[in-house]
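User: Teach me something about this protein's shape.
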Amino acid sequence: MFLHSRNRTADQLKSARSAGLDFIRIGYNASEIEDAFSYLTLARELGFKVCLNFMKTYGVSPEAFGEKARAGAAAGRT
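Assistant: First, the predicted structure itself:
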């Protein structure tokens, strides 16, 4: 499943997991990636294997991209 920044709800994630889905890609523009972190955390809590897809990476500097990637990797981990 690809969860896009424009078509997502927590209920959709829960329904997908209940239906047997075990893998999800969450896609957000790089400049807004922090908005995806709550969905990333929820997906991990639900037991999904999760990939975070950065879209429009040209909109951030390489340094900012690195910081955002590290933050995304840490999101949802306890």
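Now, about its shape. The helical segments are 10-18, 37-45, 62-74. The first strand starts at residue 2 and ends at 4. If you'd like, I can walk through any region in more detail.
User: That's plenty for now, thanks!
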